Amino acid sequence: MQRVCVFAGSNAGLQPKYGETAEWLGKELTDRGIDLVYGGSKMGLMGRVANTVLEQGGKAIGVMPTGLFRSEIVHTELTEFHEVPGMHERKAKMGELSDAFIALPGGYGTLEEVMEVVSWGQLGIHNKPIGLLNINGYYDPLVQMIKNGVDSGFIPATHAQLLICESKPDRLITLLQDYQPPAPTNKWSEL
After folding, report:
1. Is 72 helix (H, G, I), strand (E, B) or coil?
2. What distance in Å separates the CA atoms of residue 33 and residue 13, rounded to the nearest whole number?
3. Topology given in CATH for the domain delimited by 3-177
């Protein structure tokens, strides 16, 4: 695993633990020689993880649509920066550059990004590991929703394994490095 895409809030959130864990994640990535791929902002949790990677001598690669430069405040000290026309291209480029995905806490954008890569994994578009960094139980409701989807017959039980949930960055990265995709499963129960 050479590069990990981190989805994260462009805000810091209300709990100091969010920022502290984002920095811990940045340090863990750098200690393991793993490059960061992310949305390119210097704000919020996005900025905290990127700044830590850079301060530790690691590589931080940003991808941002031109139209977001002002609102997300582009990080100008990155190792590499990719300007793209729109959000679809942003997500495609981040996926292309990455070997795995981690979601820190975030808002609608973070949730949308992680659910898209899970959907791509379910459809076999990629076999890359996907982790939720579940700081202070932030992702507990999402994990419960996925369990509800399995229990209600909308998600095959083996596809619940597409998301790895862990509260500690070091443990999560190890789980992603050891990840084995679930055996192919027919997604459509009526076939």
Report:
1. helix
2. 28
3. Rossmann fold (3.40.50)
Beta strand segments in the chain, E:
3-7, 35-38, 60-65, 80-84, 100-103, 130-133, 163-166
Could you tell me the residue ranges of all domains in the chain? 3-177
Tell me how many degrees the CA angle 91-151-9 measures, rounded to the nearest 5: 30
Single-letter residue type at 147 = K
Contact (Cβ atoms closer than 8 angstroms) between residue 22 and residue 52:
yes
Residue 16 exposed, middle or buried by CB count within 10 Å (0-12, 13-18, 19+): exposed
d(CA 163, CA 32): 22
60-98 burial, b if ≥16 CB within 10 A, otherwise e? bbbbbbeebeeebbbbeebeeebebeeeeebbebbbebb
Position 103: which residue type? A
For residue 85, give Cα distances in angstroms to 41, 64, 76, 81.
16, 8, 18, 13
CB atoms closer than 10 angstroms to residue 33: 10
CB atoms < 10 A from the CB of 157, how many? 11
Residues in the chain predicted with pLDDT less than 70, given as ranges, are 69-72, 187, 190-191
**pLDDT of the residue at 67:** 78
